[in-house]
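Training component of the fellowship. As part of building independent skills, the fellow (R.M.) carried out the full modelling exercise for a liganded target. The chosen ligand was ribose-5-phosphate. The inputs are recorded below so that the supervisory panel can assess the work.
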Amino acid sequence: MMEKIIFALPGNEKLTENLSRLTGYITGSLVIRHFPDNESYVRVVSDVSGKEAILICTLHKPDDKLLPLFFLCRALKTSGAKKITLVAPYLAYMRQDKKFKPGEAVTSEYFAQFVSSFVDELITIDPHLHRRHSMSEIYSIPCRVLHSSKLISDHIRTKIKNPVLIGPDSESEQWVSEIAQRISAPFVIFKKKRLGDETVHITLPQFEKYKNKTPVLVDDIISTAKTMIETIKHLKAIGMTSPLSIGVHGVFAGHAYKDLKDAGSLEVITCNTVIHESNRINIAGIIAESI
Ligand code: R5P
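Fellow's submitted model of the complex:
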């Protein structure tokens, strides 16, 4: 079997240490820094000859990460690495999956084509598959999709009494229904219309019968948090108790985290696919199993 070596891209050191401990794979050494003019310097220090290099690089705020990642992959291959596996717990550029206006870039496709050109395999967690149903529709390399639903279910089961799960939009049904089934809890899917980057309109279906339950909002990504904030407003208006807000990926643009807490979330909980103070659910175990 090919020897494996794990590398942490900047910001991913803690998860990489965890993975190295769980798998027994050695953590490789590399240098990624900026020259004074802000161009990137990349150097592979460890011996990678004949090995599989596993790169841990979550991809929120992706634009600054992509070029160093590309340079690193090229350097690894020229240093003799046989295979490059990218572990991106959060995978960026999955949401613009369609041309809504003439001339728009369908960035999910272009990003996938670019990554596929320098990585041999991709492992990610709950990517935002909406109009695309599988990664192979846009990625030309093998992709392994891991799911956080069991971990989220375990968290809800042990910490939250009498929950009703709420998905704020139709896309969320895939996660919410699975989690609800695992913990035998009811779930309701709301309707969302996005009117702009920071404006969404949420409609509630009949909800009266769940009035005595603890509402738990579940979504894949929390970005501006407007989706969850609008949902919370509706729940408050019908007299529900404060909800818990669970996101797989807490991307939290600007002051979104504070806004979400101020809007009345009892607690905001995320997986550590993006490092954040709201991380309560550890995905290291499922990644370790997959690598
Ligand atoms: C998109 O439909 C996703 O599933 C999330 O609902 C969305 O990304 C949340 O975005 P925001 O936090 O900006 O409302």
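The panel noted the following from the submitted structure. The mean pLDDT is 96. The radius of gyration is 20 Å.
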